[in-house]
Amino acid sequence: MMEAKTKGQATKHIIVGSITAVYGVQGWVKVYSHTRPIENILNYSCWHINRNGRTEAVEIDQGRRHGKGLIAHIVGCDHRELARSYCNSDIMISAGQLPAADEDEIYWHQLEGLTVYSRTQAGDNVVLGSVSHLMATGANDVLVISPSKGSVDKRERLVPWLLDQVVLEVSPEKGFIRVLWDPTF
How far apart (Å, rounded) are the C-alpha atoms in residues 172 and 40? Predict the structure, then answer.
């Protein structure tokens, strides 16, 4: 599964990282990347940043690995104080900028909002809820399922993304995921 996070369902922007801090005095910023490998975020020269309550496009003219993270320079941002105004901002790109996923891959944003069904021991399908977001835990990714219309109860569930073990069927086109998960858990 390929990691990319969405910024709400109504937008076509995908969160691919964030600006975390300033770096140096010439307007560079430290970048946290959700892409794999992390350097891939630098392939998107046009980022969308929510700053001062509005989204604006910024262009990246330089970027590189620095220690375990990344640093980047925003065009026209040549001073530390201006760079500071970009800190704590999500880095978004338009969904159309993402490379096509391979046949056996899916982006996280394609899973968000899908209805999750589970089979009971009686063989009935019950609605657990819908995918609100995903988490990377190291061992495996986890679906965070929130209650939705028609769900079996009002509980949030964490379901591991284990294909063919827990996750049995994924159909973004039809709007659902089928899992093998005890609805009482």
Answer: 25
Element (H, E) at 110: helix 108-111
The answer to whether 11 touches 116, Cβ cutoff 8 Å, is no
Q: What is the pLDDT of residues 76-102, one digit of tens each?
A: 999 999 999 999 999 999 888 888 888
Are 19 and 53 within 8 A, CB to CB?
Answer: no
Beta bridge partners of 28: 23, 73
Helices (H) and strands (E) in the chain, counts: 2, 13
Output the CA torsion 74→77→80→86 (10° steps): -60
Residues 6 or more apart whose CB falls under 8 angstroms from that of 17 comprise: 31, 32, 33, 34, 35, 41, 90, 91
Q: Can you tell me the distance from the alpha carbon of 172 to that of 115, in angstroms, rounded to the nearest whole number?
A: 9
Measured CA to CA, the distance from residue 156 to residue 34 in angstroms comes to 24
Average pLDDT of span 5-29:
80
- For 75-175, list the strands marked E by DSSP: 89-94, 115-119, 125-136, 141-146, 157-160, 167-171
pTM of the model: 0.69
Return all residues near 13 (Cβ < 8 A) that are at least 6 apart: 6, 7, 48, 55, 92, 93, 94, 95
Task: Name the DSSP class of 114.
Answer: -
Q: How far apart are CA 96 and CA 87, in angstroms?
A: 25
